[in-house]
Amino acid sequence: MSTQAQINALEKALEKELNMCQKFAELNDIKAQYLGKKSQLTDLMKAMKDSTPEEKRELGQYINQAKSTFNAMIEAKKTALEAASVRAKLNQETLDLSLPGPDYTLGQSHVLTQIIESIEDLFVGMGYVIKEGPELESDAYNFEKLNLPKDHPARDMQDSFYISKHTLLRTHTSPVQVRTMLEYGGKKPVKIICPGKVYRRDDDDATHSHQFMQIEGLVVDKNTTMSDLKGTLRIVAEHLFGAQREIRLRPSYFPFTEPSVEVDVTCAQCHGAGCPMCKHTGYIEILGAGMVHDAVLEASGYDPKIYQGFAFGIGVERLAMLKYGIEDIRNFYINDLRFLKQFK
After folding, report:
1. Backbone φ, ψ for residue 127 (5° rounding)
2. Which helix (H) or strand (E) holds 251?
3. Can you say how many angstroms the Cα of residue 167 is from the centroid of all Cα atoms in its chain?
4. Measured between alpha carbons, how far is 113 from 135 in angstroms, rounded to an integer?
5. What number of helices (H) and strands (E) belong to the chain?
6. How far apart are CA 8 and CA 13, in angstroms?
7. Alpha carbons 157 and 33: distance in angstroms, whole number
8. How far apart are CA 147 and CA 256, in angstroms?
9. Highest mean pLDDT: which of 11-15, 42-46, 83-87, 258-262?
10. Helix/strand/coil for 228
C-alpha cells in the first residue's frame, strides 16, 4: 500500500473514532494514537530513511499535511466537546431571573478622613504643601528643637510613650515642621500643613484618647504677622462650621510659640448667647496657635531677625465632635457601622 493510501486510511479511521468519542480522556488517547511517538505517522517518517531524496521530499509533504489535518480534526472535536460540556452544565443549573440580586453597600471614607481631606483641600487651595513624617520620633525633633529642653516643666503637658531613652511616639505633628525647616536650610519660605496620628499617655474617656489625629500648620516668611494668622484661622472656621460663625483669640501659653493663643468659635447651639453646652460663655475652644518662637526658628536654621512665622494645631476628633455634636471620642474607633453610616 502506498504512503498516500496509508494516510487516507488513517484519516478515515481517525474520523470514525472522533465521531464516537464523547469524553476528553478518550480524545487524549486518540491524539496519542494518531500523532504520538508510537503512531503510524511516526512509523512512516522512520521509513523515510531508506528512500531516495526525491521520495523523501514527497513523503515529507504528505506526512506534514497529514499532521496538520489530524491536528485540525482533533482540535475541532475538542471544541465540540467543550461546547457540549457547557451546555450540559447550563441544563443542570437553573437561574431564576425574578429573584433580587445581592445587595452591595457602597463604602465610604471614615468621618475623620473626610474632615482631614476637607481641610487638606482648603489649604492646598491656599497654596500650602502637605507634609508627613514618622510617627516614631526622636526626643530632639519632638521636644528639644521645639524649645522644650530636657526637664522643661511644659513636657508634663504631653505625657509620652517612650520606646527608648531618646525615642518616643510623637506627641504632636510639630516634628514635621522642624524637619521641613531644616530641609529648606533656613533660606526658603515655608507654607505647610502636617496631618497625622499622634500619641499621648492619657485616660481613655469621653473626651480623651491615647491616640488621636492632628493637623498642624506652619507659615514662615519675611513679613508674616499675627494678622495673617487670624485671617487664616477665620477662613478655617468658616470652612468647617459655616460663614455665620465668629472666632476669638485668647492669650495662652505654648513653649514653641510666642505670643500664643487659644482659638474659640461661637457655639453652634446658642450662637454666642451662652448655654450649658458652651458653659454659658458663648464660645467653644477649637485649637491652639501662635507666632513661632525665635528659639524654634533658630534651632531650625532660620534667622528670627529676618523671618517670622505662625503655627497652629487642630485636633481632628475635636472638630468632628463639635461639627456633628458627637459626645464620646471613642465612637470614632469602635467601628460601629450604625455610627459611621451617619456620615456617608
Report:
1. 95, 10
2. strand 247-254
3. 27
4. 18
5. 11, 10
6. 9
7. 86
8. 6
9. 258-262
10. helix
Res 3: pLDDT = 67
Give one DSSP letter per residue of 135-178, joined into a string.
Answer: SEEEHHHHTGGGT--TT-GGGGGG---EEETTEEE-SSSHHHHH
Kindly report, residue by residue over 107-130, the tens digit of the pLDDT. Answer: 889 999 999 999 999 999 999 999
Q: What is the DSSP string of 69-131?
A: HHHHHHHHHHHHHHHHHHHHHHHH----TTSPPP-PPP----HHHHHHHHHHHHHHHTT-EE-
Report the C-alpha gap between 41 and 7 in whole angstroms: 8
Pairing of strands 136-138, 167-169: antiparallel
Whole-prediction pTM value? Answer: 0.67
Q: Are 192 and 200 in contact (CB under 8 A)?
A: no
The residue whose grid cell reads 507659615 is: 219
Longest dimension (CA), the chain: 115
CATH, domain range 111-343? 3.30.930.10
- Mapping DSSP to helix (H, G, I), strand (E, B) and coil, where does residue 292 land? strand
Contact 9, 41 (CB under 8 A): no
Query: What's the grid cell of residue 219?
Result: 507659615
φ, ψ of residue 323 to 5 degrees: the values are -70, -40
**Rounded distance between C-alpha atoms, residue 131 and residue 176, angstroms:** 7
∠ CA 128-133-138 to the nearest 5 degrees? Answer: 135
169 strand-pairing partners:
136
Closest CA to 137 of 173, 186, 190, 184: 173
Q: What is the pLDDT of residues 293-324, one digit of tens each?
A: 999 999 999 999 999 999 999 999 988 888 88
Q: Quote the pLDDT of residue 125.
A: 95
